[in-house]
Every structure is written in structure tokens, then in C-alpha cells.
Amino acid sequence: MKDKIEINKIEVNKENQLDDLYNNSAFTLEGFDTSKENIDKLIEWIDQCGGVKNPVSIYITKGSFMNNKYGLTKDNAYPEDLNIVSIKLEDIKNIFRLSVARFEIGARWFSDIVDNNIERQNQINGIEDEEEF
Questions:
Q1: What whole-number distance in Å separates Cα of residue 114 and Cα of residue 93?
Q2: 107: Cα separation from own chain's centroid
Q3: Model confidence over 79-98: pLDDT tens digits?
Q4: CA dihedral in degrees (56, 62, 66, 71; nearest 10)?
Q5: Where along the chain do its domains lie?
Q6: Which residues in the chain land under pLDDT 70?
Q7: Backbone φ and ψ of 17, nearest 5°
Q8: Quick one: which of 87, 74, 79 has its CA closest to 63?
Q9: What is the DSSP letter of 92?
């Protein structure tokens, strides 16, 4: 019988925590119900797909903190109390198995979420992207 996975819930409330999630391209779900039951199911699913380290840390960021950090406004802003749940890739044993399976549940990499939000916000603000050649 497998050992029960210990889950450490961490509230993200410092910019360096977001930077760390970005730099680690953390596995992320937007709008996730953070009840114990749902987090347990998520960790069980990830463990079946790619395996998780024990203990595993799950990072919970509020939409309001994302809006403030990345300057998200208008249609691009998150609802203030929206939960964004992330798990660092270093806590996942087989990232390659999870990279395709994550689409089944709408998960993305944190860095992709941030980059897409910034691109959309720049369009709202009338800032054009510079193309690299």
C-alpha cells in the first residue's frame, strides 16, 4: 500500500514566490476549488500521471495578487478571489508524462499563463510587441 502523500498548502503573497513559480514553469490550474477533497483528488491524479514527491507543496495564489503583480486590468484581470493553484515541477517525478495529460484538466505552465496575460494586457494598453529577428 502506498504511503499517504503529505500536502503542504502555501499561500502565495510575496512577489518572489510568483517569480519562483514563473522561473520553475509550475504546473498550474486557474479557478481551482481549493477544498481539501479537491486538492487531494488533484494530487492523486498528478501522482497517477507523473508521480509526486512526498511531501508535495501546493501554492495558492489569489487573482487579486496576480492582478497587482502583473498589472492586469479590464477584461484581462482575474476575479479578486479566484484561486490559482500551482505545483513546482521539481515536486513532480515525471514531467514528460504530465505534459500532455495536463490538457485533460485545463492545466498550463505558470510561465505560459503569465506571458499570455502580459501579452493581452499590452494589447489592452496599446503597447505593441517588438518582434525579434
A1: 24
A2: 8
A3: 999 999 999 999 999 888 88
A4: -170
A5: 7-123
A6: 1-2, 129-133
A7: -70, -40
A8: 79
A9: B
